[in-house]
Amino acid sequence: MHNEAQANSAVLRAWESSWIVGVLQTPDYARAILTSFTELHRSQRNVEEAVQARMNRQSGLYDSGKRYHVLLWEAVLHTRICPPSVLAGQLDRLLEVAGLDTVELGIVPLRATLKVPPGVGFWIYDDRQVIVETWDAELWLDDTDSLTTHLRTWRTLRESAAFGSDAQRLISQARHALST
């Protein structure tokens, strides 16, 4: 379903405080995340098909008609939900996509002053729909109050984010910490 929502949107905003967002994941990182959820839910879901679906969504990153505005909590750069070698590859991938014209990547530092708590991750598609992910559900919201609240939350978190070379420095520091 995310594939369709993403394909039909030109401006995508994301906030994630738990893991790297799917559209920026490497196959190995996606596999680790999806396997952990499959085990949590005791699901029979085909992890390889799900990984491929996430990788297919990444074609949008190279579509000049799309803009991805992604905010990540710095903690996700350090969370070892996967082996260190997989996380290292994932952090390298973040450094690559941070240079794309279609991607604005912000990292909210752990020491940043926040006006709102980090909370759960969500996507905003063209300011018309919000998808909030919980442990066991995706909430698809399109009412005015939900959109307004999530846009305000996203903009508030963005105020605390580091961008450009400052974001790349935070990613590089996390990458370096893996080898120490």
TrEMBL record:
InterPro entries cross-referenced by the UniProt entry: DUF5753
Keywords noted in UniProt: DNA-binding
Protein name stated in the entry: DNA-binding protein
Pfam families referenced in this protein's UniProt entry, alphabetically: DUF5753
Source organism per UniProt: Streptomyces mobaraensis (strain ATCC 29032 / DSM 40847 / JCM 4168 / NBRC 13819 / NCIMB 11159 / IPCR 16-22)
One of the record's GO molecular function terms: DNA binding
Superkingdom, natural source: Bacteria
Lineage start: Bacteria, Bacillati, Actinomycetota, Actinomycetes, Kitasatosporales
